[in-house]
Design a protein that fits this description.
The structure holds three protein chains of three kinds. By secondary structure, chain A is mostly helical. Chain A is built from three helices and two strands. Chain A has a domain of 38 residues: Orthogonal Bundle (Histone, subunit A). In chain A, 32% of the residues lie in helices and 7% in strands. In chain A, strands 1-2 form a two-stranded antiparallel ribbon. By secondary structure, chain B is of the alpha/beta class. Chain B has a domain of 342 residues: Amidase signature (AS) domain (Amidase signature (AS) enzymes), CATH 3.90.1300. Helix content of chain B is 39%, strand content 12%. An eleven-stranded mixed beta sheet of chain B has the order 1-3-2-4-6-5-10-11-9-7-8, with helices on both faces. In chain C, the strands form four sheets. Chain C has a nine-stranded mixed beta sheet. Chain C has a three-stranded antiparallel beta sheet with strand order 5-4-15, with no helix packed on it. In chain C, strands 3-16 form a two-stranded antiparallel ribbon. Chain C folds into three domains: 285 residues, no CATH class; 113 residues, no CATH class; 58 residues, Arc Repressor Mutant, subunit A, CATH 1.10.10.410. Chain C is elongated and about 90 Å long. Chain C is an alpha+beta fold. In chain C, β8 and β9 form a beta hairpin. Classes of the chains: A mainly alpha, B alpha/beta, C alpha+beta. β2 of chain A pairs antiparallel with β9 of chain C, so a sheet runs across the interface.
């Protein structure tokens, strides 16, 4: 797998981040190196092995449908960078 | 009474006996922080209500409400555990101003046991790193040699205990983040079985691997802390009911007759010779105490790092998406639209290592690559778990090194991420399998830096691990040594 | 309108239904509609750092119920997955949903096809997921305001097969779907409140073709009428594009009901790469055969069985029965009055006549009927006892329907009772006859129309309080 400049750009877009111009080339080669190492995993024979998300075989942990008091809007918005009338305020998101 | 050499349980006992008050203990710790922290930078935040809390705790100890052996003991909390009203920043600019309106369950549990929290401990940004250098607030230094890193990501949690700034601390371990800094700083730390301590309120790095655990001067202290925080929590669907940790059983463990396995694959390329020799010496010590030690093969070891970095990065890329400048934390200024607000806030709020893992995570989850990477890594995880299950049919415990080296020089690995990742070889597979494992001080290298041995147990065998560690610590004194740097300050 | 002999429309639906559980899917906040902004929220549903989801048992139960009522297979081993994308209404920047193992698969609903026959619309899958918050534009700051009250309300997404060939089929399917979900009580399905939202995937192709054209997805239709219009608009638009040699773009389009047109939404900044992966914070859910059997047994009578019973046991016509059972509210109205002892046919006639009429005039849905359902029975009773005339009853019902008033009181207050005293009626009619000598003469000379006029005048003088039969009989008697 070759990490191209386009792929770096695509990954930046997916992660909503932008690398500083000066560290882009280094980031690209670091990613390349890491990925090359990670690719050794392809040698491992996993034929017929069920992928395992959880190490412990738990199932059916659920909560009863009972209402608990919600937080106050003051608590909900306590860390909001911008707010108005108990709404979070964000840049315009409508066309 | 020499508080500087006291363990958490010794201090707790003294408080209960009225030989010292919780307030005096808190004052001592605050003075220690005052004295040492400029040099080591363990604490991101020191709480301003420590003495009030100590007073309140003292009252409740006197009234008999707090009966825990740890009540009144000053401690520290890693900066990725939410504590109501206290800045919880995860070592990141992204959360530099975040004050949660809720507390992590583990924090609540330890508070219910009468803990006196001193403040929040430094860490690698969002727990990504093994040096504590990626913190936006600055790097923590190793109390054994300030030119060295304390390890990470719970570097602040390990260094603060080593420096005597607190008596024990809570850390978190996703791929070795408790055990590796414990090893580098010469303290005892344990990552319990996945699911045994609630993750609610622990700011997620990799949800399927993250686990909270204690760091302390010795195994008995760790057992006492675990006994308080190992509780099933309805707020964490992945948490399990356990039999907990039995402190008495820990204190009375005899390793005689225990079967200890050593994977030969832990002693391959990359392992420092001095570390290898020290671990072997620890094995002989356990043998001398009556344990049977035997080597066995575990070839799956070499696939642990690739599988770990795929799973951890993938989950991290998703877990860290919520930091978008909308609801809390850092928001970039002078932006024209929504997309720019996202991109600029995240680019300015996250450091390089976080960005790297987000990109790696996005890659392995992106359409077309999911099967080759993420799915494959989950299969490797299944194979690693079954390799351990098989080993534990034969052995009570597995022994090996925690890290291939002792603490590195500051800056040594920062520019070479792959080299840093390779340092996690012995620890990440434990998280993949969800097993409990401890780092126990077992010697020093020629430069005087501590070395920890890795004691790995089967699911819910925390008592057995800490029992063996405690027995070892009854006949050795590695864990009692104090950093010589301390006397120079 | 495009030529249906040349072009065929192919559609599939993605219907989002908010479940009527008390609490949200992953936290214990209320699911109640509305509320002041950010008052039905907690750290979990607002995606604060470190919080974890805790699955609501009722969501799994409701989704299982829905699946069984819609003839689906229930997935025994369920998992949740994360769907990752950035938008301000999604505080975690991922939606917990089900991609790999949805709770229900391979179901279907039978509807009436365009040719009058029966047709099964396949249900590909149903999965559980969480709703997003609400965005409100703030013109004064030219910003967007975010309210997370709806965030985390449980949804099921019901994905149909591309089996629809006309807008009518779509509406029939939606009506039936809605009725079933209301019957089993898993959702109130209020389109105006957004608890039932249908997105339409639509493509066109030449008649006779067996491959699918490029499809678009249409969102933001808030009523059946809007769905109808949006489908017609989009089918015409696509045909026009094709007939002009153009190509239909795969895109999401937003319907603007005021403009009567849909518009391509700005394509997301990147390709739609949702980076799905298994949700590590939730463990698998196993649904046992036993639970499935119990749930099956607990299902109430569904529209199809009900229709059969209404026809076979109550003697309703096939048409009336199927119209009635098409709505939970109409069924409730019918069955409540049936239980009170009123005759089935009479109640059905009222519903099929006046109720339907008033619903269509007011543009309301049956579930919007706000009056006490028992009032319809009271009215029927008064007619049966000849206390009021049928015509009066209709007028009274309009007041019941619109204002929710008690018909018995209303009749009293407005003095609408039928005059039962024939002597009094006769006196009034005699006055009418005396005042209309010309018409009397015409009638006597054989003009039937003149009698009609006299009946009308008499009814007017009686203010409708006597029934026409009585009036006619008395008139004929007076006129000899």
């Amino acid at each position: 797998m070759v990490i191209t400049d386009e792929l770096v750009t695509y990954l930046e877009a997916l992660g909503r981040i932008k690398l500083p111009e000066e560290s882009r080339a280094k980031a690209q080669s670091d990613l390349q190196e890491i990925l090359q190492y990670i690719d050794t995993l392809s040698e491992l024979d996993t034929e017929g092995i069920e992928p395992m998300s959880h190490a412990l075989p738990l199932t059916n942990v659920m909560r009863e449908d009972e209402v608990q008091p919600s937080a106050t809007p003051e608590e909900v918005l306590a860390n909001a960078p911008a707010q108005k009338d108990n709404y979070f305020l964000v840049p315009r998101s409508f066309e | 009474m020499n508080l500087e050499t006291m363990t958490a349980l010794e201090l707790g006992a003294a408080i209960r006996k009225g030989e010292i008050s919780a307030v005096e203990a808190a004052k001592f710790s605050l003075a220690q922080i005052e004295k040492y922290d400029k040099k080591f930078y363990c604490f991101v935040t020191v709480q301003d209500d420590v003495l009030q809390r100590a007073e309140e705790v003292q009252k409740k100890i006197s009234s008999g409400e707090y009966t825990s052996p740890l009540a009144g003991v000053p401690m520290g909390i890693k900066d990725n555990m939410c504590q109501k009203g206290i800045q919880t920043s995860c070592g990141s600019r992204m959360l530099y101003n975040f004050r949660p309106t809720y507390s992590a369950t583990a924090v609540e549990e330890i508070m219910n046991a009468g803990a006196v929290p001193l403040g929040k401990l430094n860490m690698d940004e969002f727990a990504m790193g093994s040096t504590s250098e990626t913190s936006w607030f600055g790097a923590t230094k190793n109390p054994w040699n300030t030119a060295c890193v304390p390890g990470g990501s719970s570097g602040g949690s390990a260094a603060a205990v080593a420096a005597g700034e607190c008596f024990y601390s809570l850390g978190s371990d996703t791929g070795g983040s408790i055990r590796q800094p414990a090893s580098f700083c010469g303290v005892t730390g344990i990552k319990p079985t996945y699911g045994s301590v609630s993750r609610f309120g622990l700011v997620a790095y990799a949800s399927s691997l993250d686990q909270i655990g204690p760091l302390a001067h010795n195994a008995a202290d760790c057992a006492a802390v675990l006994a308080e925080i190992m509780k099933q929590d309805k707020k964490d669907n992945t948490s399990v009911a356990t039999k907990g940790v039995d402190l008495n059983a820990v204190l009375n463990t005899d390793v005689k007759g225990m079967k200890i396995g050593i994977p030969t694959d832990f002693f391959g390329e990359g392992l420092d010779k001095e570390v290898a020799e020290t671990i072997e010496a620890a094995a002989w010590q356990l043998e001398a105490m009556g344990a049977t030690v035997e080597k066995f093969d575990m070839p799956i070891v070499k696939y642990a790092i690739p599988a770990y970095y795929i799973i951890a990065s993938a989950e991290a890329s998703s877990n860290l998406s919520r930091y978008d400048g909308m609801k809390y934390g850092y928001r970039a200024e002078n932006v024209n639209d929504l997309l720019e607000l996202y991109t600029k806030s995240r680019s300015e709020g996250f450091g390089m290592e976080v960005k790297r893992r987000i990109m790696l995570g996005c890659f392995v989850l992106s359409s077309g690559y999911y099967d080759a990477y993420y799915r494959k890594a989950l299969q490797a995880k299944a194979l690693i778990k079954s390799a351990f299950d098989k080993a534990f049919e034969k052995y009570d415990l597995i022994l090996g090194p925690v890290a291939p080296t002792t603490a590195l020089k500051i800056g040594e690995n920062l520019s070479d991420p792959l080299k840093m990742y390779l340092g996690d070889i012995y620890t990440v597979m434990i998280n993949l399998a969800g097993l409990p494992a401890a780092s126990v001080p077992c010697g020093f290298d020629a430069k005087g830096m501590p070395i920890g041995m890795h004691l790995i147990g089967h699911y819910f065998d925390e008592t057995k691990i800490l029992g063996a560690a405690h027995a070892y610590q009854q006949v050795t004194d590695w864990h009692r040594r104090r950093p010589t740097e301390l006397d120079k300050i | 309108m495009y030529n249906a002999k040349v072009w065929e429309t192919v559609m599939g639906l993605e219907v989002h239904v908010e479940l009527a559980t008390k609490t949200k899917i992953f936290c214990s906040c209320t699911t109640e509609f509305g509320g002041e902004p950010n008052t039905h929220c907690c750290p979990i549903c607002t995606g604060m750092p470190g919080v974890l989801p805790s699955l609501n048992k009722a969501v799994v139960e409701y989704a299982t119920k829905a699946g069984l009522a819609l003839n689906c297979e229930i997935t025994r081993y369920n998992k949740f997955d994360r769907k990752n994308y950035f938008y301000p209404d999604l505080p975690k920047a991922y939606q917990i949903s089900q991609l790999y193992l949805p709770i229900c698969r391979n179901g279907g609903i039978e509807i009436e096809a365009e040719d009058g026959g029966r047709k099964v619309i396949g249900i590909h899958e149903i999965h559980m997921e969480e709703d997003a918050g609400k965005l409100v534009h703030d013109p004064s700051t030219n910003s967007t305001m975010v309210d997370y009250n709806r965030c985390g309300v449980p949804l099921i997404e019901i994905v149909s097969e591309p089996d629809f060939r006309s807008a009518n089929e779509v509406i029939r399917y939606l009506e039936k779907l809605k009725a079933i979900l209301q019957y089993i009580g898993v959702s109130d399905c209020k389109m105006q409140e957004g608890s039932l939202r249908a997105d339409v995937n639509l493509s066109v192709r030449p008649v006779g073709s067996d491959t699918f054209g490029t499809r678009t997805e249409m969102k933001n239709m808030n009523s059946f009428k809007a769905i109808m219009r949006a489908i017609q608009y989009e089918a015409n638009r696509q045909v026009e594009v094709m007939e002009h040699g153009g190509e239909v773009m795969q895109e999401t389009r937003r319907w603007d009901d005021n403009m009567g047109a849909s518009f391509a939404m700005r394509s997301k900044e990147d390709a739609q790469d949702y980076k799905y992966f298994p949700e590590p914070d939730l463990i698998p859910i196993e649904i046992s055969e036993e639970t499935i059997e119990q749930t099956k047994k607990s299902l109430p009578e569904l529209p199809e069985e009900k229709t059969r019973r209404y026809v076979n046991e109550l003697g309703l016509s096939e048409y009336d029965a199927s119209q009635l059972t098409g709505s939970k509210a109409l069924v409730d109205l019918f069955e409540q009055n049936l239980a009170a002892g009123y005759p089935a046919k009479e109640i059905a006639n009222w519903i099929m006549g006046e109720v339907m009429h008033l619903l269509s005039d007011s543009g309301k849905e049956p579930e919007d009927m706000a009056f006490d359902y028992g009032y319809l029975g009271s009215l029927i009773g008064m007619v049966q006892k000849n206390e009021i005339t049928r015509n009066t009853a209709k007028k009274v019902f309009k007041a019941v329907f619109e204002e929710g008033c008690d018909p018995v009181q209303y009749v009293e207050q407005h003095n609408l009772k039928t005059v039962t005293d024939t002597g009094a009626v006769k006196a009034v009619i005699e006055e009418v006859v005396a005042a209309n000598q010309k018409s009397v003469d015409e009638y006597k000379s054989g003009k039937e129309k003149a009698l009609q006029y006299l009946i009308g005048q008499s009814m007017r003088a009686l203010r409708g309080k006597a029934d026409p039969q009585t009036v006619t009989a008395i008139l004929k008697e007076i006129l000899g």
